[in-house]
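Issue: copy button drops trailing tokens. Both records pasted manually instead:
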Amino acid sequence: MSNVLVVFRDPLWAQALDTSIAPPGFEFSTDRRRLADASAVVFHIPAWMRHWASDRKGLGWLLRGAKRRGQLWVAWSMECEEHYPLLRDAEFMRHFDITMTYRLDADVPATYITDDGFRTPPQAKLAEPLVAAFVSSRTDRSDRARYFRELARHLPIASFGALLRNRSLPRDEGRATKLDTIGQYKFTLAFENARAQDYVTEKFFEPLTAGSVPVYLGAPNVDDMAPGEHCFVNAAEFPDPKRLAEYLLDVGHDEAAYHEYLAWKEQPYRASFQRLLALNQPHPFVRLCALILARRARA
């Protein structure tokens, strides 16, 4: 019996596909010459924005009968729908049978949720400044650049990113260096580049891993993603950056109040967070394959 072929038509930002993730009985491929033979075709939706911009009604060959009879089409994206409105465009999305996105209501949720290193004890903190930031991308639908600049008027921030940079890294070995650096600060700005339901990325989870308290700006339901009680500061709860700065200064100079934000590391995860961890396992591609089998069985 031949394997079920899944063709990933569009790469994830030109990254190589790890075909070893394919579960037994499945084959993953990026060879577009095999599209007609595929049981399922995965489309990385952000790659289609250029088509949407130039051909709003037609979207090229998508509307010209390219789908083989019985084939399943999968809409895949880890990017926010605020940046890629195709994800909420009903006319476009009706072409797909399965969604695999960061949204919790997707057919296959592919979220950023993790508990990687959460139990690692926090390291000693620098006395000043209290806050670290790694903000570089100019992509900004959350108004984070303006908020950052206003916040920086009211308290010192060690900025290692392109925005308001005033610190540099003596060495940069990627994520490990970033985690080690922010772990030295009491707070870390965790500002998403867009504000949308369920769009909670590594910006929130990395400070939790490093033992720094995230100061979060982004998804309205971020509390649903928190592993413990009282483990982050939500900018949305403050009327303006000045009031947030005053709060961070107060808590940052009150050791007892600050350590309340780290107590979650020694407590059981919230039941809601444990459910989200379970929802995110195993790998999204493995869960996608299980759903493909179920859909094929019903056909």
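Record 2 (pasted manually too):
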Amino acid sequence: MAKKRNNKKKRNTIGRISNNAVKLRTEDWDKQNGRVAFYYACEKNCQLSDWHNTELKELIRCFKKIENLTWNDIKTHNGLNYEPISSLAIEPPANIPPDASFSSLRVSKESRLYGFRLEDTFYIVWFDKNHIVCPKGKTKHYKI
């Protein structure tokens, strides 16, 4: 008995899902709008509960800016003053991923957010309104 011949074009699939659907997301994250996450927010130093009403309003404006700009724009925005940080005055929490690269974002003249970026999200670790995390002109004990 002769086998039936399947003339259908072989599709590039894994089961019923196409290979394109299961590829890792490889887009350029700097072209994506910024996002903010609180998963790693530290409960020990520089807490958000220390901020006052006007400072919280400035923080909300900062979050809105971040979410309305791409990461390319955030990195060059004069008001946000995004900066990589190489050393800290306080010890990072133990739950921070070992490959995290810390950076800061300016909320106001006095206040900063410290954390790290992963893909399109800035994970806040500290809400610093008194320059405790990275004081200017003072020794920083923790190299990162």
